[in-house]
Write a structure and sequence with these properties.
This protein is of the alpha+beta class and 164 residues long. The protein has four helices and six strands.
């Protein structure tokens, strides 16, 4: 009978919104979401994938955002946050992610119509069934800059299983 260790990590990311752009989109969980304002970022600014990548770094101890991703983005022009996530996943060394839970705080864009698509794409990227990916969205009653529409913030908890 195999013994397993179960561990959890937390990841966070946030970005400020830029000036109105009319009809543009932002990336959230690998999905293009219509928005009237872009996020300010060097990359595609996908706060969900950045928070997941940070949570993986919390497990592996290997910094991807601010390290490997900066080289890919700034030196090689790779802006796709799913590439950074894949780099983080390469560092798991036998551990597997078994659940992802995330919460998004923003006033805009409205996320309810997009939640299933985001769950599906995140599950695909992490190798999880959609049933093992949870997402909630809140305005936080407008108590923070995110809830007042100035940007977007995400917190992620990942659960890992590793044979011991």
């Amino acid at each position: 009978m195999s013994e397993y260790a179960y561990l959890s990590t937390i990841g966070q990311d946030s970005h400020r919104f830029g000036d109105p752009c009319g009809n543009c989109s932002i990336m959230l969980g690998g999905v293009a979401i219509p928005s009237d304002r872009p996020v300010l970022a060097n990359s595609d600014g996908d706060v969900i994938l950045h928070a997941i990548t940070n949570a993986i770094s919390g497990y592996t101890g290997k910094i991807v955002l601010g390290g490997i991703a900066d080289k890919l983005c700034l030196e090689e022009g790779i802006k796709d946050s799913s590439v950074y996530l894949k780099k983080a996943l390469e560092e798991l060394e036998g551990a597997e992610i078994i659940h992802c839970s995330m919460t998004v705080e923003c006033m805009v864009p409205k996320l309810k119509p997009h939640l299933d698509q985001i769950r599906s794409k995140v599950g695909e990227l992490l190798g999880l069934p959609q049933s093992s990916v949870g997402i909630t969205a809140t305005t936080g009653e407008g108590l923070t800059a995110f809830g007042r529409g100035e940007g977007i913030q995400v917190f992620v908890i990942l659960s890992f299983r590793k044979k011991i």
